[in-house]
Amino acid sequence: MLHTFWLKLSPYNLPAPLKTAPKLNYLYHPAPASDFCRPALRVTNDDLSRIMDTSDEWIRSRTGIGVRHAAVEETTRSMSVDAARQALEEAGIQPEELFKNAL
Fold first, then answer.
1. Separation between Cα atoms, residue 27 and residue 6, nearest integer Å
2. How far apart are CA 35 and CA 53, in angstroms?
3. Which of 18, 37, 79, 91 could form a disulfide with 33 if both were Cys (CB 3.0 to 4.6 A apart)?
4. How far apart are CA 66 and CA 37, in angstroms?
5. Which of 61, 68, 74, 63 is closest to 47 using CA atoms?
6. Residue 2 has pLDDT above 50, yes or no
7. Which of 5, 57, 12 is nearest to 34 (CA)?
8. Residues 74, 41: contact at Cβ < 8 Å?
9. Which residues make Cβ contacts (< 8 Å) with residue 77, sequence separation at least 6?
């Protein structure tokens, strides 16, 4: 499934040399794919019931949650980079190609 989202670039979030470009209002660049990354550690309600006085039924009936993922070694940055790499690979795009025709 191909997901498309738009990156909105304005003169306020571009590097200084580009802020003075003539007739630069907004640039829109379609991103042809998106992806996600989640932490590797998977914690189920049964896992929690082994270390706490609770049960899968109790947690699920109150929260609707059955499984969660916990970041131990991963950071927001590392997961963002992994998701971006996966999306670019899925789209068949090299990172250098993203904004080569933006200006």
1. 10
2. 37
3. 91
4. 19
5. 68
6. no
7. 5
8. no
9. none
